[in-house]
Amino acid sequence: MMPNMNPRQMQKMMNKMGMKQEEIPASEVIIKGPKEIIIKNPHVLKVNMMGQETFQITGEVSEGSGISKDDVLTVSVQAGVNEEEALSELEKTKGDLAEAIMNLQK
Description:
Elements: H1 7-16, E1 19-24, E2 28-31, E3 36-49, E4 52-64, H2 69-79, H3 83-92, H4 97-105
Antiparallel strand pairs: 1-3, 2-3, 3-4
Helix pairs in contact: 2-3, 2-4, 3-4
């Protein structure tokens, strides 16, 4: 942001440039991919600039494996191993349940 500019002036300038922003209420944001990114207590802004929507998110960030507890439990039961071993194999196989089970049964 620009220093020494009051919020009302900033809003007028943004409106002139065709920018609109809206605060989105959220308690948690999860970005799913090879690894999950979990953002707790987020501050989420949706910015629309010339028809293009973008989101700005700030908060407490932590990473997860992206592998669900149900998948870990399924592999654990089917392969007859503990949950730590099941999770480790699922991470190696990038979440492929069948491959993880087959590898653990060898």
